[in-house]
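Self-study notes.
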Amino acid sequence: MMRIGILGGTFDPVHLGHLIPAQYALQHLALDRLLLVPSAAPVHRPLHMPAAAEHRLRMCQLAAADIPHFEASDIEARRTEPSFTVLTLEHFTRTMPVGTRLYLLVGEDNVPLLHTWRDIRRIAELADISILPRPCDGPADTAALEAILGAGPVRDILARWVPGPRIPVSATEIRRRIREGRPIDGLVPASVAAYIAAHRLYL
């Protein structure tokens, strides 16, 4: 039975705050593959992203090429409509071998919003939601999520918290540093930094 991790996001740009916790998840959850899935038109973000979907997908491909068992998927980047996680999971459920177990990796800073995601019940049926460490303000209030899924399933989600460091890096800070002409060494993979410079992104 294949175990596949799915990490979605805007990845504008993809950075070590995404990649290092994801590598911990690869080991902790014994995943066979981990897919980075950049979105085209994310529902919870403005429709206009600083970098176009094709650039964000290419940066994910470059980042994944440097990490064993990582891949980048274009399933959401090819969409013209808003990206809903439930549609992506249904796609992978249809197209992957029977018996594949999906793990949806969610940053702990997004846990308070899970109850607002479209068809969160269906999402919880299709994948084991697992929590990645991210800088946040403290334990999430899960009352609204428990009202939808029940206390037991939410406990199971929180129990799948991936132990690892909270990397204090944000895409907003990286874009700001680029606009100000400051270095981003150590914040993104070298291949991603070179791509950003070559295409003059975020200036």
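Second protein, same conventions, sequence then structure:
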Amino acid sequence: MPTRDLLLGVLVTFIWAANFVAVRFGLDAGLPPLLMTGLRFLAVAVFMPAFPRPCGWGPLLGLGALFGLGQLGLSTLSVAAGLSPGIASLAMQTQAFFTIGLATIVLRERPAPRNIVGAAIAGMGITLLGITHGHSATVPLGGLALILAAALCWAGGNLLLRHVGRGTSPLAMAVWIAAPGSLPLLCLSWALEGSPIAILSTVRSPAVAAGVIAYSAIGSTLAATGIWASLLARHSAVLIAPLSLLVPVFGMSLSALLLHEQFDAQGLDSGPINLLRRRGLL
């Protein structure tokens, strides 16, 4: 992979990691999860007239469901269910393993031995970090289930995006994916969370809420999804998907810095280290 594409992939992971922290700020400002995600997609969808439709409505509806209702809707709900942004950004990266598995089965893209070794090492790191953090913080099972379902949807979206994304404008794809994703999210929000107008009139911090929507729409959806789509169009899914394993590195760092999430040495010692000792490995 060219160095330029590698750096673009790293930039995308940072933008996505910061979005987990932004979601927490948005929830604290008074935005419910479904409305927040629906407004994010609606803000992107307004750019539709500026771009020609990149593919048929069938793939667009599928991508909107997988990335909108699936990846982003479920991940936002997981944070609302009590999962910390750091752990959410960590668990979401199981999508890399889902993507590699699905790409191997569906697209017949065989990962190279170095990809398998790298994914295994990253998987061990994710497991150890999860055990460490789980020692000092209660991880809600409902939130964890939601984020794993979101990761599976992201993996499915990666494969569909790779299939239909070749030869299309990445920005056009990002905008038109948002269009079919916004309406069902807003309808679900109205049904489950109440009238959007009533909710927005009672938001505690309108400036923070507006900033979160703007960042999520312009940064995380338009810019990051557009770049990610372009990378998937130029490279195999098994090569691009593991880059997302950098998200928890940035996510947990930003969560500790901005939300004061604790990752202490005591948790490290009594978590994975003692586990390895009990197994006779240390």
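Instructor comment on the second fold: The longest helix spans residues 206-234.
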